[in-house]
Amino acid sequence: MDSVNLSPRLAAVASFVPKGARLADIGSDHAYLPAHLLLKSHIDFAVVGEVAKGPLENARQELKRQRLLAATALRLADGLAAVTDDDQVDTVTIAGMGGILIRDILAAAKQRGQSFTTLILQPNTDEQVVREWLVQHGYQITHERIVQEDKHFYEIIVAKPGNQTLSAQDLVFGPFLRDEQSPAFKAKWQKEADRISLIFERLTAAGKADTPAYQQWQARFQDIQEALS
């Protein structure tokens, strides 16, 4: 993967970035995503935010190699503290982090009074945590996509300011993903159902089929079966 040829995961994230956006890519690492969008003249400007010096230097070298430094601002900062009012950022991408960390980054930004027109989020875990935070803090989910890359599944969540109410199943499975029932969605949750089936076998063999833990797994298994039906 490089700035010209993104991975399927980052290509899916890039597909949701509005034309002409002023972008903040948080946790950018090599800055492949903003570099790709700048090379295609899809965005006008990008803030590249990193919390560690090593990844920020990786981003600097990639942007220098692609002759894109003039269109970017590289900042060593915690989350969206990398963005200033003068940047006029309207679109934020946060990809490749855990959902709890993404939630915490968004919560800290909200405490600072920051708001953005478009959030494009790709949590590696705890997608439900991200959805819960969004709907509780004045954002509505407008698009979703799930991408399979090798053995891993990645969910992309796009949100804009607005009010929305989601069911418990929507929070877990995604309101758009659950309706779409894509092959990747089915594969992800069938894999999880198969994993839970093995847990059932181990708990039963250990004489723990009547425990609260077994019942919790059973409820999750039933939720997955309903989502796939």
Beta strand %: 15-25%
Q: H/E element string?
A: HEHEHEEHEHEEHHHH
Spatial extent as radius of gyration = 19 Å
How far from one another are the termini? Answer: 36 Å
Structural class, judged by helices and strands? Answer: alpha/beta
Helical proportion? 40-55%
Arithmetic mean of pLDDT: 95
Number of strands: 7
Uncertain runs: none
Shape: elongated
Strand order in space, largest sheet: 3-2-1-4-5-7-6
Number of helices: 9
User: For the report, how would you describe the main beta sheet?
Assistant: 7 strands, mixed
Overview of this structure, please?
By secondary structure, the chain is α/β, with parallel strands linked by helices. Helices cover 45% and strands 24% of the residues. The chain has nine helices and seven strands. It has a seven-stranded mixed sheet with strand order 3-2-1-4-5-7-6, with helices on both faces. Strand 1, helix 2 and strand 2 (43-50) form a beta-alpha-beta unit. Helix 4 packs parallel to helix 5 (127-136) and helix 8 (183-205) runs antiparallel to helix 9. The radius of gyration is 19 Å and the shape is elongated. The protein starts with 7 loop residues before the first helix and ends with a helix. 36% of the residues are buried. The mean pLDDT is 95.
Key structural traits:
single chain, 229 residues, alpha/beta, 7-stranded mixed β-sheet, elongated
Brief sketch in words of this structure:
This protein is of the alpha/beta class and 229 residues long. The protein has helices at 8-15, 32-39, 53-65, 99-111, 127-136, 168-173, 175-180, 183-205, 212-228; strands at residues 21-26, 43-50, 72-76, 91-98, 118-125, 139-149, 152-161.
